[in-house]
Design goal:
The complex is a heterodimer of chains A (256) and B (375). With 256 residues, chain A is of the alpha/beta class. Chain A has ten helices and ten strands. Helix content of chain A is 38%, strand content 25%. In chain A, strands 6-7-8-3-9-10 form a six-stranded mixed β-sheet. Chain A has a four-stranded antiparallel β-sheet with strand order 2-1-4-5, with helices on one face. The chains are: A alpha/beta (256), B alpha/beta (375). Chains A and B meet through helix 4 and helix 6 of A and helix 1, helix 2, helix 3 and helix 12 of B.
Chain lengths: 256, 375
């Protein structure tokens, strides 16, 4: 049993539907403080929709969302803004503001939520940029001058700008080369440990699942099955079996 | 929640001690930054950073401590850090290890750089003009090639653009020209009445609407409406790498994107101009009926005496040229988009401004040509 205060995110009975298509039907999910949870599932099972629902970009049809002990549908806008300052989101392609430099991108949430003076803001932005594994001169560049992997790192630096409690990552390693991807995994694990983050990541990268996820949530039959890797390996569901015992899983050293 | 962060300075014997405690987080960073000073009484050469009382630390707090430690070290202090919670120590270590991150000062600009900037701006204009002319050349060559193989033209795209740029623009073009007809007739009648030449209002109205007003206003509306749309459409495709995708599957963006838009606008703008002529004359006519106290039939017969068909053709013949210019600039700027959403916005603005500017320049050239030819 986990104490209630240790639950960072708690979803109860989430229903999402688009037209006649039901994506989630009574989905429950609890995320504990300080864990890295990976969300997997086939195409069109609503991984991104689930993440967007939690961060409030998509309104669920039914169900309740509790983040950091606050019911998201009951709180005022001001309280909501406070919660928003405590999570960071890395979108799939970085979603950097293209008219701002990387350093300005990182400073954007600081400007909105804090009263830091400009010099300290510059220093902190430079620190975040370095922490996310970019060279120091990347701060002055515009997103269009960066490669895909660098954009992800810059997006991570922006997500970390306010030292959030929760980090949402949408396919952080997709499109990175294997070396870059495993560096990124290490970086996330490293930051998670030193900053005490709770990480929710959507991923298809079996190596990341093995390397950094404490628990894995599998979106299946409009619900989510959460468990450790060892528990999932025993699952008899055909899709899960296929997922963890397929050739790619064997290559990643799982199953077999 | 823990206490807000605090720092206390004290001296004991030959050591200076900074004791820190509470929450060293981003909310308190500005205040803590001001409090972390090196007072004058810290003359001794050994310093202790006592962090035992800190119960919450984030990267901002860790950065302030790390920076303070480095500042002390550069002033010759022997710095000793007393860490408290091992979890916090991990974070502090990570921040301290991140090598010097101070952003570099941008180099100061001197007069020479400013002169160089002016030169670069002028060079930019020249290069852009050259590129536009080159683009015009490749458009002409594509049109010539397609003239011999008209079945290769993308008729669907052409008709769809005629609908968007022509048919859908009818309400706004009609409204504007109707109102301008009304205004011209009213102002004209007012001034000409002083000479008792009120009936010449109709001459003035007919000639100015047919020769200049209708075509010019329509071209300006279309430049704002369709020139911008062309730039934004092609620019967004450019950002999404759709234009590159076209090239890789062997399609020429000139044939697929530019030619249909140019041809469509060259069809749509003359038709719109004809409609604008009619609406302008109608608006003016309604005003004349009120001001001159004549019937609509009388207005038509006076108009018939006042103008010749040449006036009509002089206006209409300019329309396809304006259309080609607007579409050419719209597509050219769209294809120049690179990378960002901001660049789409900047080049769309530029496309409209250049389009309108060029339309007016060419209109002036036509006026000179027609007066030389005596039409």
């Amino acid at each position: 049993m986990v104490a209630k205060s240790d639950l960072v995110i708690s979803l109860k009975g989430i229903v999402n539907r688009f037209g006649s298509q039901v994506l989630h039907d009574g989905l429950d999910l609890d995320v504990k403080r300080g864990e890295v949870i990976g969300i997997v599932g086939g195409s069109g099972t609503g991984k991104s929709v689930l993440m967007r629902t939690v961060i409030g970009l998509n309104q669920q049809a039914e169900g309740t969302i509790t983040v950091l002990g606050q019911r998201m549908d009951e709180i005022s806008d001001a309280e909501r803004t406070k919660i928003e300052a405590r999570w960071g989101v890395l979108f799939q392609n970085g979603a950097l503001f293209s008219s701002l430099t990387v350093a300005e991108n990182v400073q954007a949430p600081m400007r909105e939520h804090t009263d830091l003076h400009p010099q300290l803001m510059d220093e902190l932005a430079a620190l975040k940029i370095r922490l996310s594994g970019l060279p120091a001169d990347a701060g002055a560049k515009y997103p269009s001058q960066l490669s895909g992997g660098m954009k992800k790192r810059a997006g991570l630096a922006r997500a970390l700008a306010l030292d959030p409690d929760i980090l949402f990552l949408d396919e952080p390693t997709a499109g990175l080369d294997p070396i870059g991807a495993s560096e990124f995994d290490q970086l996330i694990r490293n930051l998670q440990q030193s900053l005490g983050l709770t990480v929710v990541m959507i991923t298809h990268d079996l190596d990341s699942l093995v390397a950094i996820c404490d628990r894995i949530g599998i979106l299946i039959d409009r619900k989510i099955r959460v468990g450790t890797l060892a528990e999932h390996l025993k699952d008899e569901h055909p899709w899960i079996k296929e997922y963890f015992h397929g050739p790619r899983a064997r290559a990643a050293g799982i199953g077999a | 929640m823990s206490d807000p962060g605090w720092v206390k300075f004290s001296t004991s014997g030959s050591t200076a001690v900074w004791s820190c405690g509470g929450a060293w987080t981003i909310e308190h960073a500005t205040r803590l930054d001001g409090d972390l000073t090196i007072p004058a009484e810290a003359k001794s050469k050994s310093a202790i950073l006592d962090l035992a009382a800190i119960d919450q630390l984030d990267t901002s707090g860790a950065w302030l401590i790390s920076r303070h430690g480095k500042a002390l070290a550069t002033q010759g202090f022997a710095v000793e850090t007393k860490e408290g919670d091992p979890d916090l120590a991990v974070l502090l270590k990570r921040v301290v290890e991140t090598e010097d991150v101070l952003p570099q000062e941008p180099p100061r600009r001197n007069l020479g750089d400013k002169v160089a900037e002016v030169g670069a701006a002028i060079e930019n204009i020249l290069v852009e003009s050259r590129d536009l002319i080159a683009f015009f050349g490749s458009l002409v060559s594509a049109l010539t090639r397609l003239a011999f193989t008209p079945w290769k033209l993308r008729w669907n795209a052409i008709f769809s653009h005629v609908e968007q740029t022509g048919l859908n623009a009818l309400p706004i073009v009609g409204m504007i020209n109707l109102l301008v007809g009304v205004v011209l007739a009213f102002q004209g009648a007012d001034q000409l009445a002083r000479f008792g030449a009120q009936t010449f209002t109709i001459n003035m109205l007919g000639i100015s609407v047919l020769r200049e007003m209708a075509v010019l206003l329509t071209a300006i509306v279309v430049a704002g409406r369709s020139g911008s749309a062309f730039t934004a459409q092609i620019g967004t495709m450019q950002v999404n790498e759709e234009v590159d995708a076209l090239r890789t599957i062997g399609l020429n963006p000139m044939d697929v994107l530019v030619v249909p838009r140019v041809l469509a606008l060259m069809i749509a703008l003359p038709l719109l101009t004809f409609f604008a002529d009619m609406m302008g004359l109608l608006g003016g006519g309604l005003m004349c009926m009120v001001l001159l106290d004549i019937s609509f039939n009388q207005y038509l017969s006076l108009l018939n005496q006042a103008i010749t068909v040449n006036h009509f053709w002089v206006g209409l013949v300019k329309a396809p040229f304006f259309a080609a210019l607007i579409a050419l600039i719209g597509c050219f700027e769209g294809l120049r988009v690179s990378g960002s959403a901001e660049s789409v916005g900047r080049l769309t603005t530029r496309s409209v401004v250049e389009g309108i500017f060029m339309v007016i320049i060419v209109d002036a050239l036509f006026s000179i040509l027609f007066s030389y030819l005596g039409i």
